Predict the structure.
Amino acid sequence: MSKLKAVQTRPRARVFIVDDHPIVRKGIADLLRQAPDMEVCGDAATIEDALRQIAELAPDLVVVDLSLPGAGGLDLLKDLSLRHPRLKAVVLSMHDETLFAERSLRAGARGYVMKQEAVNELETALRRVLEGKIYLSPAMSERLLHFLARGKAPNEGSPLERLSDRELEVFEMIGRGMATREIARKLHLSVKTIESHREHIKGKLALPTAAKLVQHAAQWVQGR
């Protein structure tokens, strides 16, 4: 029996997609429609809708974007880990994996793929995770192994560890030159909430002014 036939005789893995962009959800669904061993059983744009549908549909794996309306994708991962401990999750995100891959794994994800990667990387990641393994890019895997060999986590001792998941997300966006209103629109939050995050970040990183915050964030993004 050929490998393709062997794959086709097994039940197709049921994948659920959580992303607030309809085009992204459609793109993933179109990609997986061509896969012989996976199928999309549902999708959602918000955390609330995702939790409701996942409880009803019982997928094998969920693909999660980190930038979701409200609490965000990392909080969804933590919630899913508590409610559905057997459910596997892969993060598909625009955010730099050097900042967010480790946090995503701690939150319950088993894989991390950046949206800039080739589409076949997502399929590879999903299959790896469905097999019970962890998927990270080769560069991130090497980075983690390097730090583990030295007996510490990649960001251990970094002031950025003081930031909450959402604050770190805002910090990265500031470093990429995004203005407060643009960040608010991207994260589906109010301008006042983003301004509050900025103040908390300044306090935790001991940055005296908004200009210092922008400079520090830009240097951090450019230095990775």
User: Anything to note?
Assistant: The radius of gyration is 18 Å. The beta strands are 13-18, 38-44, 61-64, 88-93, 111-114. Residues 191-204 form the longest helix (14 residues).
